[in-house]
From TrEMBL:
Residues in SsuA/THI5-like domain copies: 52-259
PANTHER family found in the cross-reference section: ALIPHATIC SULFONATES-BINDING PROTEIN-RELATED
Protein name: ABC transporter, periplasmic substrate-binding protein
Pfam families the record matches: NMT1
Keyword Cytoplasm: no
UniProt keyword terms in alphabetical order: Signal
Signal peptide: 1-26
Length: 348
């Protein structure tokens, strides 16, 4: 099981208090589930994807009766390969990857729940690069070819009228590696989350070229979801439902008390300043998946966006209903009630 190293929590945190109404199930009633995550999400990602760590370390999975084993992999392509091979039950992958699996390989994969809506990504570059247009002909660090940051970065560049063919992509791995490479001047630009960018502190040689809100406006609001093969969703329905309920509940608790999230993040990520975490919490406020982030309108919008990309020309058109299973989040609304208030993940 992946854990956050040295995470020390007060005995009665808000999240723990909120969960006291859910009785812990007997050990014999625990159901097992394996989930592939990109390496950054398997640790403490300072975005709403931190729910993967939080649900484990704060005991949400245990109280909902599911024993989750995280398999740490280096990006979406490897997570998708693990899912395809049957090595894991579920994987956190991009919708674009799910479409490729379905359209190109007839892999019957469906998304069930998501960890975020509205990206927290940005494009950072050397200070000498003032605009997106200045990126043409320059090196651009990505996790891997086909990874989420690569796909979204290409989408945003295209929105600005810059052809991805004019960018020199360099696959060098995880976000912290990419931002350090940028800070050291080894690459000219990269796409990372706001939290990862903040981790390097003040560096005069780099700056934000496309801020998170603008990046989010020019890219799909829903980019990833936790998916499984149809056969697995049927075979392990109860375990996946418990997993879904736990993720949604922790999302609601963290949105309700951002100071609590900041305290936990500060313990888990001593490399980040409290000021940067406070800024990140403000960015996260509307992005928590308090209802699971599987609204049909957002799924359809994302698929339309993907199919409008030049590299999807000729790819068989798959309807959002064929790459998603809404029954899990719908059941969560029965189990937990539908959340109301603010945020991008509100049901109409």
């Amino acid at each position: 099981m992946t854990r956050i190293a040295d995470l020390r929590l007060p005995a009665l945190s808000l999240a723990a208090l909120a969960a006291l109404s859910i009785p812990a199930l007997a050990q014999d009633d625990m159901l097992e589930l394996s989930v592939a995550l990109g390496v950054v999400d398997a640790n403490f990602n300072p975005t709403t994807a931190s729910i993967f760590s939080l649900a484990d370390d704060l005991g949400y999975f245990e109280r909902h009766g599911v024993d989750v084993t995280y398999v740490k992999l280096d990006g979406t392509p490897q997570a998708a390969a693990a899912l395809y091979s049957g090595s894991v039950d579920l994987a956190d992958i991009s919708l674009e990857t799910a479409l490729r699996l379905r359209a190109d390989n007839d892999v019957k994969v469906r998304g069930v729940v998501a960890s975020s809506i509205g990206t927290s990504f940005l494009i950072a570059g050397l200070t000498e690069l003032a605009t997106v247009e200045d990126l043409e002909g320059r090196s651009f660090a990505i996790a891997d070819f086909g990874s989420l940051d690569h796909a979204l970065g290409q989408a945003v560049l295209t929105e600005y009228g810059v052809s991805p063919d004019n960018i020199e992509y360099v696959a060098i791995g995880a976000p912290d590696v990419r931002i350090q490479a940028l800070a050291a001047g080894k690459v000219d630009a990269t796409t990372v989350s706001f939290g990862t960018y903040s981790s390097v502190g003040e560096v005069d040689s780099i700056h934000i070229i496309v801020p998170p809100d603008e990046f989010s406006r020019r890219s799909p609001a829903l980019t990833k979801f936790v998916a499984g093969l149809e056969s697995t969703l049927e075979e392990k329905r109860d375990a996946i439902q418990r997993f879904t309920d736990a993720l949604i509940e922790v999302s609601r608790d963290m949105q309700a008390d951002p100071e609590r999230w900041i305290d936990i993040a500060a313990e888990a990520r001593p490399d980040l300043t409290r000021e940067s975490l406070e800024q990140t919490a403000e960015l996260n406020a509307s992005r928590w998946c308090i209802n699971g982030c599987m609204a049909p309108a957002e799924l359809e919008k994302t698929l339309n966006f993907i199919y409008a990309k030049p590299d999807f020309e000729g790819v068989a058109v798959i309807d959002f209903a064929d790459v998603s299973d809404l029954s899990f989040t719908q059941q969560s609304m029965e189990n937990l009630g539908a959340a109301e208030g603010f945020g991008l993940d509100l049901r109409n």
